[in-house]
Structure formats: structure tokens, C-alpha cells
Specification:
Layout lengths: L3 H12 L6 E5 L12 E2 L9 E2 L3 E4 L4 H5 L3 E7 L13 E5 L11 E4 L4 E3 L2 E3 L10 E2 L10 E3 L7 H9 L4 E5 L2 E8 L3 E2 L10 E2 L2 H9 L4 E9 L3 H14 L2 E5 L10 H8 E7 L2 E2 L3 E7 L2 E6 L3 H19 L10 E5 L10 E11 L2 E6 L8 H5 L3 E5 L11 E6 L6
Parallel strand pairs: 5-6, 13-16, 13-17, 14-15, 17-21, 19-23, 22-24
Antiparallel strand pairs: 1-12, 2-11, 3-10, 4-6, 4-7, 5-9, 8-9, 18-20, 20-21, 22-26, 23-24, 23-25, 25-26
The structure holds adenosine monophosphate and magnesium ion (MG).
Length: about 400
């Protein structure tokens, strides 16, 4: 059996250097896309010195005058409506947040610190020269790298890109994915189920997970357990997909033709990964496509996509993949575990006096989705570890973007 870390490392090494084409995408469609090139700032931000407060702009050399006879108002500046003149000694300007600083001023005093009497303002509050001014270029300087290639764009990055006036960005095209479920026992949601059938849940759960990454699902079908159906579907998908993902048929069952077809059409390795849920898993190449064969059990299919395939898919999408932050929690209850495989037990998380507490949630069976549906994360229990007693430390991983 292969460890989870080795399996992921082997797949990351095999797929490194796979480069998707690039396309220019408008701001409104950028969420979740992967930046193909470093993004250089075309503008300085802020573009001009401006006020950080509602108050009065003045020159700090008039500090003494401000607290004795006071300063005379020369006018007003609002956001979007600058004052065009130059402040003279002894003058102040009414100014609002975001308004451009007038020439001749270096400081803003907030209105709460000022007494205004007609055209005159006085303040007894000590003046700090330069206060409440946002300076040009304080955030971003023109020409600097704002975002690195491989960045997955979130709302924060979209705001940043918009803030320098760009209406689009160069990103990698979406990864083209073919997704199949297989098995004669499957019946489709919405159809009436015969007594010996089960509903095909994997195809829909896996698709929803995949669509949280920048992918385009180009084949989406259920395949019966026949050599012909499997062969023609995989062969057709391998013409145009970057990635083919199947669920079921990677364990050793009589009716599983997956192996035979993959041996014919490509080079796929069947692994037994030392993880629970999971274990049977296939990875390799079929013609022009990368192939991932997930187990059939619903919990195993979801966890192997999340834990084994996800980092590889992200890398294929062009994303700079970052390892999950190691988080520790205290076991609030016992966790049942046999040494041998790395467990991803589904947990609920809680906080007791600031300490993160983990408890197993629902049944941990690999075919049982209901217990998983309540989970907030995984306890990642080391392969060699046995039962965990309450109070022991466990590594935890909150559910990530694919499942949350
Ligand atoms: P297999 O990998 O073919 O041995 O399947 C393992 C288990 O997963 C069996 O109980 C299957 O009935 C079940 N299974 C396979 N495919 C699906 C699916 N698409 N949705 C739900 N359960 C499935
Ligand atoms: Mg089967």
C-alpha cells in the first residue's frame, strides 16, 4: 500500500508542467479563475493624496494659529469634487473622506476635534503633522507585481484588479473534465428505482465539487457495466478532455471492465492507497487525458476526490498549490481507529474556552453519506495510530472549498 503523501507527490510530479492555454476574462467572470501571468499594477493606488476623514485640511505650520485665533475657511473639497485653489497661510479647507488634498495642505484634523464658528475654525486638540492623509502610492506602486501567476482569484483579488482600473485579466482556460459513474446497480435520481437498484449519487456530488474549481464538464454520463460502453465512452472522452474521472470499478470486482479498457487505451496504475475511506484508486494517462479512477462508495469517492485528486487537479488548472495549514484540536470524544491506514474521519468542531475540540460525527461507514453531510471537517489520524482517547491531540482539517 502507498501512503497518501506519496500518492499525491507522485501525481503532482507526473502532472507538473502541464500547461493550459490562456484567455482574457472580464472582471465579472474572474471569480475562481487562475491568473496565467503575473499582474503588474498599471496605476499607483491611491492615485492622489486624499483625506482619510471628514474634517478640515490645513498646513501643520498653522498649528499655533489653529488653537489661538483660528483659521479661515477657503472652501470645501468633496470626494469627486476637488478644491482647485491653493491654501494660503492661515486658511483651512472643509474636506470629506476621499476628497483630494488641496495644494498647500499637509494635514487633516477630524471634525469632532474642531469648533466651527461661521467661516472660522479653532481647535484645542494637539495637531499631528501629516495626520489623516492617505498618500499617493501608499498601497500599490505602478509597475509592481500585484499578484503572482498561479493565483486563484477570490473576491479580494477581483477588488484589487478593479481598483487599478483593469476590466479583465489573463487566466488559464478552464480544465476540460469528463466525469462518469459506472455500475449496473445504478438508477438515476428522478427515475423510479427497482428493488435491487441504488441511486447514482456520486456523479452529482463529484460534479458539484469539481465545479468549485475552474473546470468545464464536457462529458457527464452513467455507464453500464459492459466492456463496450466503457470502451466507447473513455475513448471518446480521451479525444478532448484534459482529465477523465470515473467512480467505481477500480476495486477487484467481476463486472468491472474499467481495468481492461484502461489497459487497452492507456497507462493507468491501480493503487491501494493507505487511507480510510478510500483505498482503491487509479491514476494515469489515457491518450491525451489524465485519468483518475475513484472508488464507488460515496464517502470514499468524495474523500479521494477531495484529498488525493484535488491538489493534482488544482495544479493542472495552473494554480500554485499550497499545503493545508496544520491545525491541532483536542478529541472531545473517543475516535475508533485501527492502525494501518491514514484516516480522514468526519468531525464536528467546537470551541471550549478558546480550545478547538473535535468529535466524530455520525457513522463513519464509507457508504454512508448522511453522517458526512453534518461534518465540518476531518480528523486526519496518522496511519500508525490506534484508538484515540478523549483529551488526546488530533490533527484536523476544516472542510475546504470543494465541500463547504
Ligand atoms: P465498486 O467500486 O464498483 O465496487 O462499488 C463500491 C460501492 O459503491 C458499491 O456498493 C456500489 O453500489 C457503490 N456505488 C458505485 N457507484 C456509485 C454511485 N455512482 N453512486 C452511489 N453509489 C455507488
Ligand atoms: Mg461496481
Amino acid at each position: 500500500m502507498q501512503s497518501v503523501a506519496d500518492a499525491v507527490a507522485e501525481m503532482l510530479a507526473a502532472t507538473s508542467g502541464y500547461a493550459l492555454g490562456e484567455e482574457s476574462v472580464a472582471l465579472l467572470q474572474l471569480d475562481g479563475r487562475i491568473l496565467a501571468k503575473p499582474l503588474y499594477a498599471p496605476e499607483t493606488v491611491p492615485a492622489f493624496d486624499n483625506s482619510a476623514m471628514d474634517g478640515y485640511a490645513l498646513h501643520s505650520r498653522d498649528a499655533k494659529l489653529l488653537c489661538s485665533t483660528g483659521l479661515t475657511l477657503a472652501g470645501a473639497a468633496l470626494a469627486g469634487h476637488p478644491f482647485r485653489g491653493v491654501l494660503q497661510p492661515g486658511q483651512a479647507l472643509r474636506i470629506m473622506t476621499g476628497a483630494e488634498m488641496p495644494a498647500g495642505a499637509d494635514t487633516v484634523i477630524m471634525q469632532e476635534d474642531v469648533q466651527a464658528e461661521g467661516e472660522r475654525i479653532v481647535s484645542q486638540v494637539p495637531l499631528h503633522p501629516g495626520s489623516h492623509v492617505r498618500h499617493a502610492g501608499e498601497d500599490i506602486r505602478r509597475g509592481e507585481v500585484m499578484l503572482a501567476a498561479g493565483q486563484r482569484l477570490t473576491p479580494l483579488h477581483i477588488g484589487l484588479i478593479a481598483s487599478v482600473g483593469l476590466a479583465q485579466a489573463e487566466v488559464f482556460r478552464k480544465l476540460r473534465v469528463a466525469l462518469f459513474s459506472s455500475g449496473d446497480e445504478l438508477c438515476q435520481p428522478g427515475d423510479s428505482r427497482q428493488a435491487h437498484q441504488i441511486y447514482d449519487s456520486n456523479r452529482f456530488a463529484l460534479r458539484a465539487m469539481l465545479e468549485r474549481m475552474p473546470v468545464e464538464i464536457i462529458h457527464f454520463a452513467w455507464l453500464p457495466d459492459t466492456l463496450e460502453a466503457m470502451r466507447s465512452a473513455i475513448a471518446a472522452a480521451a479525444q478532448e478532455a484534459d482529465v477523465i474521472i470515473t467512480s467505481a470499478g477500480v476495486s477487484v470486482g467481476d463486472a468491472d471492465y474499467t481495468r481492461q479498457v484502461l489497459d487497452e487505451l492507456g497507462e493507468v496504475n491501480f493503487w491501494r492507497v493507505a487511507m480510510k475511506p478510500g483505498k482503491p484508486f487509479a491514476f494515469g494517462r489515457v491518450k491525451n487525458s489524465w485519468f483518475f479512477g475513484l472508488p464507488g462508495n460515496p464517502v470514499s469517492a468524495i474523500v479521494t476526490l477531495d484529498q488525493l485528486a484535488q491538489p493534482v487537479l488544482r495544479q493542472l488548472c495552473g494554480e500554485r498549490v499550497q499545503a493545508a495549514l496544520p491545525l491541532l484540536a483536542t478529541a472531545a470524544e473517543a475516535f475508533r481507529k485501527q492502525p494501518g491506514r491514514q484516516d480522514f474521519q468526519r468531525i464536528r468542531l467546537d470551541s471550549e474556552a478558546g480550545v478547538l475540540m473535535a468529535s466524530p460525527c455520525g457513522s463513519q461507514g464509507s457508504g454512508l453519506l448522511h453522517g458526512f453531510a453534518d461534518a465540518q471537517g476531518y480528523a486526519v489520524l496518522e496511519a500508525e495510530r490506534g484508538h484515540v482517547a478523549p483529551g488526546e491531540q488530533v490533527r484536523v482539517m476544516p472542510l475546504g472549498t470543494l465541500l463547504n
